[in-house]
Fold each of these.
Amino acid sequence: MAVHPLCVEPHPVLRTPARPVDQFSDDLRRLARDLIDTMYANDGIGLAAPQIGRDVQVFVANPTQQRGREVLLVNPVLEAVTGRAGVVEGCLSLPEIWERVKRAARVRLSGWDLDGKPVEVEADGLLAIVLQHEFDHLHGRLFIDRLSWFRRQRVTRRVRARAASRRAAVPPSQASGAKGRDASLAASRVR
Ligand code: NI
């Protein structure tokens, strides 16, 4: 088991489009295990590789938080989105920020499993939201990017203030791995 420190905004890896996985190797399996362990250790319901400092296209999602029921996708493609939903979201890379985000209600994604076999995932409810949130992480997007301009300005000020207080509180040698305690997404109504 390996729990990694989380990368927190404004860490540059969170804003870097992740590279496609080109080898279904032991390293990929290790990364998948580490993502799952780190997600559960932080009480999250989703986690993408960039959040632990790896710029590759892998994420894990599991709104049930039951071990063994994770949805893991490698090189995911968003094939279809339908309907509308609005859920209050949080993110392990944005500690203590919670905002309602407009999303699609249902999604279909294709991708690959750890063995390089093609997989397709269809989801609605909270899983659909988590899949969209984690998919965004692989393209350098955070949920705050989807807020209205006004709300985003307000949130960005809070993110900057928190980053400044972390820099003041944490010795520089540990500053890149500040650990968040929030769940990756708050369970909430899907509208
Ligand atoms: Ni997130």
Note: The pocket of nickel (II) ion is lined by residues 91-93, 133, 137, 184 (CB under 6 Å).
Amino acid sequence: MKFEQPAGQNPIDKGTVIGRATPRIDGPLKTSGLATYAYEQWDLPAKPAYAWVLGAAIAKGRIASIDTARAKSAPGVLKVLTAADTKLPGKGSRNTAKLLADGEVEHYHQAVAIVVAESFEQARHAAALIDARYERTDGQFDLAAGKGSAQPDQGTNDSKFGDFDAAFGKAPVQVDVTYTTPDESHAMMEPHATIAAWQGDALTLWTSNQMINWGKQDLAKTLAIPPEKVRLISPYIGGGFGGKLFLRADAIAASLASKALGGRPVKVSLQRPLIMNNATHRPATIQRLRLGADRKGKLVAIGHEAWSGDLPSGEADAAVAQTKLLYAGANRMTQTRLAVLNLPESNAMRAPGEASGMMALEAAMDELAEKLGMDPVQLRIVNDTQVNPEKPEQAFSQRSLVKCLQEGAQRFGWNDRPKTPASRRDGQWLVGYGVASAFRNNMNQKSSARVRLGTDGKVTVETDMTDIGTGSYTIIAQTAAEMLGLPLDRVVVKLGDSSFPVSAGSGGQWGANSSTSGVYAACEKLRGTIAQRLGLDPANIDFADGQVRSGNQSFALADAAKGGEIVVEDGMEWGEISKKYQQSTFGAHFAEVAVDAYTGEVRVRRMLAVCAAGRILNPQTARSQVIGAMTMGVGAALMEELAVDKRFGLFINHDLAGYEVPVHADIPHQEVVFLDEVDDKVSPMKAKGVGELGICGSAAAIANAVYNATGVRVREYPITLDKHL
Ligand code: MOS
């Protein structure tokens, strides 16, 4: 099915199951420990062996020698593999660095050897006996120093409209500020983990991966085998946040080790201290914002330049993405520059681009509001636009930013805010309020599904879509239930297996709308087949209460499958309509913080997000996504930071003791409000992504609240207490 025209009335609009707050259907399995994660497959073809990944001890240079003799003769050791032993042909099209170093070391903790043993402990012990020698060469590890030689990025186009320099120069009110955001780690709970087993020339992986088909294609490419010979199974994922978009070393190590053992299953879980440097992270940014406004607060010039770094042939963080679209203003420019750094490979982390970009843009807007002596909510409202500011002929499919700000201000009690910074005291605490817009693009991806109507009247959905903790199982079940007029418990959902039709996968908050649209298409086809089987007019048919009705005829749904199970497959893709309208999601974040007047400790007191993202398919799982994202906003604002050792090129804090993330005690009352809207220009589901919207702007709202509390503007994230003392 191709989505070409705004969606008309359809079965989803009934809202019998869709749009209702519904607990996760996979919840009981997860809370009782019965959900099998990648490392927890017990039903394997043979007793598994264990592999340990040895990471490079230098950031850049050459492996001079690896002596594995002692490791090989250690107790329990089955194999010790290096690139020389495996003749690993290459790397996938998405990875920047090789997943097993071949002579040359591209980054610190890049895998250089794989030790396979009968037990995990034996593999770990033997790895310590490997004698690897390196020849170190100089690298660039400092973004500030590499900034001067940064080049235009292939992934993000620079943009220029009107005459920015002239307009900014003449603007009566100007802000010219530079913000920095640090390298950050996905720090998901479940490490990258894989069990691999070969049967003949066919390879099966139980792994933890957000994008099954990308993983399958890239694994085949890396091993130089046909993709049909690779099966990825990833039904449950303990968090990804972008860190599991691409194949990582666990998948390669397990595959190579199993091959070396003649197909015996091999388990690999990347050691926590290896992950920060071996895997991927969100890159640090330097962002210069220049905002020029007239005295009434109308933006006349908007300029945003962003620098980030990656390994050679990597990509920049698209931190200017929202600045192209969020506010009106005739004179504007954005520029994205990429510095070559020899730090570990960088990649998307929850809401790439907008997440870090909003931390700078929305703080700069707060600075502008102060210079104007204007309410920051009002400043955002007067600069709203209903068309793409870079392409005025392109309207937004739907844009309710103003409504979000107004509704949020009212619910939060924004009028009671301290209007002067550092003016409110509660005992030892300085109290402040902050606001920021929320913005994240909506990107749809082609997505397919198979649906089966069984002779028992149950419907089974199969798609390689993943559930990374987001609630995919539940919204997919809700979609099929609504389309076929069944209660939720009559629908079975099977996900995360490359033997199922290729879906959108989980990334970029495209999963919910895209994957349910694919299921919609498959269910629409199934409805047609059912009508045909029952001899009913497909144009005049209703599915409800487990019944199929047309005119005065009525059948039980199961009757259609009397002659045998019905199986159909279809998918959704998007046509020109995706280009005709700019599709984005909007919101408003509000935060109240208290800062200890003596120590500078920041406590977040309450947070509110008002979100506008089309139809909310399941307010319960969507809320859970948004509060998770707001929590990552707290981390980004106040604590998360990979500390770069600029001499040796590695992240020093490489575990969850040294890399601080917010915990329950850091998180106060969080309220999430969804505007009641549907967006008929995005899909028949009329839904957009919302999972990443919650992080885009929340960190800036906190930063603005900290400024409002203290009167000290910290432009270097995270805002740790030392920075405003
Ligand atoms: Mo997301 S950072 O695109 O998984």
Note: The pocket of dioxothiomolybdenum(VI) ion is lined by residues 210, 240-242, 245, 348-350, 352, 507-508 (CB under 6 Å).
Amino acid sequence: MNIGIVCYPTFGGSGVVATELGKALAQRGHRVHFITYSQPVRLDFFNENLFYHEVYVPAYPLFQFPPYELALTSKMVDIVQNEKLDVLHVHYAIPHASAAYMAKQILRSRGIQIPVVTTLHGTDITLVGKDASFEPVVTFSINQSDGVTSVSADLRRETYEYFAIEKDIMVIPNFIDLHRFKKQEKSHFRAAIAPEGEKLLIHTSNFRTVKRVEDVLRIFVGVREKIPAKLLLVGDGPDRNRMEKLARDLDVHRDLRFLGKLEAVEEVLSVGDLFLMPSENESFGLAALEAMACEVPVVSTNAGGIPELNVHGVTGMISDIGDVADMVKNALYVLDDENLPRFKAAARARAEEFAVENIVPLYEECYRNAIEAV
Ligand code: GMT
């Protein structure tokens, strides 16, 4: 197939899933055209089946808000028509699904039919999409898609609960490249970070409020009171400065490091003993899946789709949102030397169920259905 993928090109989960999907599809012989405003961060290699088309928004003094959606629509029309795409797959409803709807109408007026598949990733539904500023457009553009997928059953449930959706939503979970995400030999790194054999806790996120990074620090404080431990925080975002200050106020700053945005996150995960995901909202939890693939068990909340990934008592432990005391107790249980090897092995085994090879055929099936539907 000749497939167009529209996504955010950033480190965020939806952009990572879209990029990894495009790479996997290209390896399976499809031609994949990425359409977005800059080179996706994980689109970092050459493949004869991969193409990248940049959306350029011309500046004009009248525009207080550059009309990205219009430039994106025009680019979609151009690429569908000239590259003869079979299907357009947009990741994250806002504004990609409505731009795709507009592109589809323009193409129809030119005698070209293009099926649109929309993948809902999370905050496009649970946070931003519900806002009255966007809800009518989100509802309409989902209903106008020829195929709709969500990354967890919980996100599908929430979409039906809050939006008047008439379409079937197919659940296609996040997936992982197990050749890239596996435990690597990084003992020199571990020795540098935890020279006294301390347990190593890891958190990666975009440091937004939904991630509750403050709870990460408070869990770490509780764990460190009982056992020697270090904490690595990967990523960056709005709450980072506040968290650096809080770490100093809590007097744990010497035992943790903020590593910023990292491309090779699997190298850091390879030295971890426990991954912390105390999110308030998480449609799937790709970051936890990446950790599990590197044999790192997860202490998480029960938010959104996390329980569809993290199996309580097997791959990690689950607590209510905000219950820091319970997460401290759970972390200590998982980190106990009697329990840790079992949790590590189970985390990897669970991650293997989400291997890219198992999940990508589901998207191919969805494309075929959408193409037949138009
Ligand atoms: O986690 C984020 O805030 C980024 C966000 C995104 O849209 O890029 O991630 C969402 O999509 C990921 C890929 O499907 C999911 O694994 C994340 O759980 C989801 N984040 C939230 O629901 C908060």
Note: The pocket of GMT is lined by residues 12-15, 17, 92, 121-123, 151, 174, 206, 208, 210, 281-286 (CB under 6 Å).
Amino acid sequence: NWNMKNFVEDQTELIKRQVGDRKVLLALSGGVDSSVVAALLLKAIGQQLVCVHVNHGLMRKNESESVVEVFKNQLHANLIYVDATERFLGKLENVADPEEKRKIIGGEFIRVFEEEARKLDGIDFLGQGTIYPDIIESGTKTAKMVKSHHNVGGLPEDLQFELVEPLKQLFKDEVRACGIELGLPPHMVYRQPFPGPGLGVRCLGAITRDRLEAVRESDAILREEFEKAGLDKKVWQYFTVVPDFKSVGMKNHERCFEYMVILRAINTVDAMTATIEKVDWEVLEKITGRILAEVENVNRVCYDMSPKPPATIEFE
Ligand code: XMP
């Protein structure tokens, strides 16, 4: 009979058989799929798994720290942490076009990963968090995006590995159940979707450090307040964006000219269409008050009322 406990045991055996005494390399972004595949590989082959976490400087607040804490400090995985923040922000300087930004982030991600792979000896396998919908929905935008940013598929000829994809028969809810079975923390397993290019597509237009900081801090406040209000379990995706223009305001009796934060909270089944969440006025006021008091360079907060279509979920 099929249950998650048996699935984990069967896959552990299959992975051991496939890998033998050789090594597996895994790009561990900290997303649900890569985290679960990391935990499963760790259970099967322990220190023969080499995880690489690339921090592109566009992660949410404390996200990379949490990947290191869980996988390195708690689970004692063989984890290489690469802080590539300066490199990514350098390449992105003055680049305003959304597609160009995505291309730079995706391309640079592969190059950083490839450089790390070259430093390592005797790697034969590449672990991947491919799940069933990635295979069947490969024609949709979302799946393609996921592919271009997470399926390190663009590696050069001399870096071709055999793939280990133990989750490829599972749907998302089964992947989460597998993560829980493997003992991963619920905050990691029930994480809301987060785009590969991260906060890079939420810091609209050409990325600047002050606005990137405003996106990161306001996003952290939004998530904290949604959690307190129990909305984190109810709403499919919620985040903030910061546009690249300023508006006039008043702070300490003086005119100021600063950025705005836009809040977005949506529900969807398949991300192809989406409706907005009717967030309680009190919750919105609380979030607005905190952002205006705690986030630098911001004097205005707006709530995005647009469904998809015609708007997409993200802004870029
Ligand atoms: P849109 O903005 O197209 O987003 O309505 C649909 C869903 O896809 C997510 N998204 C991405 N996920 N890499 C990802 O892994 C990406 O590049 C990417 N772009 C958008 C988005 O957050 C939403 O859930």
Note: Residues 4-189 form a domain with the Rossmann fold fold (CATH 3.40.50.620).
